Amino acid sequence: MRAALLGRSRVPVTALGLGAAAIAGLYEDVGEDEAAATVEAAWDAGIRYFDTAPHYGLGLSERRLGAALRTRPRADFVLSTKVGRVLEPRDDGGDDRANGFAVPATHRRRWDFSADGVRRSLEDSLTRLGLDRVDLVLLHDPDEHGEQAFREAYPALEELRSQGVVRAIGAGMNQSRMLTRFLTDTDVDAVLCAGRYTLLDQEALETLLPAASAAGKSVIVGGVFNSGLLADPAPGATYDYAAAPADLLDRAVRMRAVSEAHGLPLRAAALRFPFGHPAVASVLVGARSAAQVVDAVAQVRGPAPGAVWDDLRAQGLLPGGVPVPEPLRDGSLT
Questions:
Q1: Does the pLDDT of residue 329 top 70, yes or no?
Q2: pLDDT 10s digits, 42-60
Q3: How far apart, in whole angstroms, are the C-alpha atoms of residue 90 and residue 107?
Q4: Which distant-in-sequence residues (6+ apart) come within 8 Å of 162 by Cβ?
């Protein structure tokens, strides 16, 4: 699978990366064996970039991902985790479903974008992962903590990078405005933008992606299905973790009709779409099973007629100025 360097760093990420929130029981329980099989399927498919966070399953994602990768040559894969939420033990029972994860509520999350919080979070992550290092560290969802994130957390990451503790730094959010500021006002290597550069939402094209290109930095795209609607547009589907509005459901259904008329599943078009912009280095796939990994890889490796994008534009489903991907000679993107 082809890879690209993150910004000016020497950190290579494969075109598809595995987002490891789902294997930590996102929305529904995932067993240990199934989680391990998911990571193994990603490895077998050529995926070498893996993304996790303390937030995912209260550390379960990091523990499971670390266990699955521990036997692999450390130089052969790239791993990112996040800082900004410190996990603190609790023993009052219950579960974490209110935060989206079907796991016992063994810890509570505490927002902390201080320099000490960044260092503590990274140390705790390394312990859970059972690995000696991570390659990329991202400030996680600093939406309501912007001042502290820029004043304290970012300089701490920059220091860790200069010391060689991490190889690349950045931020990950579900919005583009603050991520654009990270690209223009700091020396991050990359940003992770979730849900804002998809077939249904091109917010990131306004300022984020042009800023990345101008600065020679990279964008990792997550949430390409907008939490489900673009994977299977049907009544009850979710958009950005809530019930999809009727107009967006109708739009997604029309997109599916266009895509399938060219023999391309809508989820394939959704996975391929971000690669049309040169600043996009990788697209994260949030899989909870080996079958989902295999399917995702198949969707970007098969041929994709260019007429799909032409017809989406012709029907007013995709703006005319939005860049679209050019397939490799065999039709593959990976």
A1: no
A2: 999 999 999 999 999 999 9
A3: 5
A4: none
Backbone angles phi, psi at 191, to 5 degrees: -130, 150
* C-alpha–C-alpha distance, residues 195 and 203, integer Å: 9
Retrieve residue 151's tokens.
């004043």
C-alpha to C-alpha distance for 317 and 294, rounded to whole angstroms: 28
Looking at the whole model, is its pTM more than 0.90? yes
- Could you please report the per-residue DSSP string of 45-65? TT--EEE--TTTTTTHHHHHH
In single-letter form, the type of residue at position 57 comes to G
pLDDT digits (tens, 9 = 90+) for 125-150: 999 999 999 999 999 999 999 999 99
Does 56 participate in catalysis according to the annotation? yes
Cα–Cα separations (whole angstroms), residue 235 to 81, 244, 248, 250:
34, 8, 11, 10
Cα→Cα distances 286→46, 194, 237, Å: 16, 11, 16
The C-alpha atoms of residue 86 and residue 122 are separated, in whole angstroms, by 9
- Taking Cα atoms as reference points, which of 233, 231, 268 lies closest to residue 254? 233
Using only C-alpha atoms, the chain has a radius of gyration, in whole angstroms, of 19
What's the CA gap between 126 and 132, in Å, rounded? 7
Angle of the 246-261 helix axis to the 307-314 helix axis, nearest 10: 140
What's the confidence (pLDDT) of residue 304?
77
Written as six digits, the tokens of 191 are: 């940003």
Place of tokens 């029981």: 25
Neighbours of 75 (CB within 10 A): 6
By the 8 A CB rule, do 198 and 230 touch? Answer: yes
Cα angle: 49, vertex 36, 227; to 5 degrees: 60
Whose tokens are 């994008």? That residue is 309
Q: Are strands 190-194 and 168-173 parallel, antiparallel or unpaired?
A: parallel
Phi and psi at residue 79, to the nearest 5°: -130, 130
Instruction: Please state, in angstroms and rounded to a whole number, the distance separating the CA atoms of residues 53 and 28.
Output: 18
Choosing from 49, 56, 154, 239, the catalytic residue is 56
How many C-beta atoms surround the C-beta of residue 118 within 10 A? 25
* pLDDT tens, position by position, 258-311: 999 999 999 999 999 999 999 999 999 999 999 999 999 999 987 778 899 999
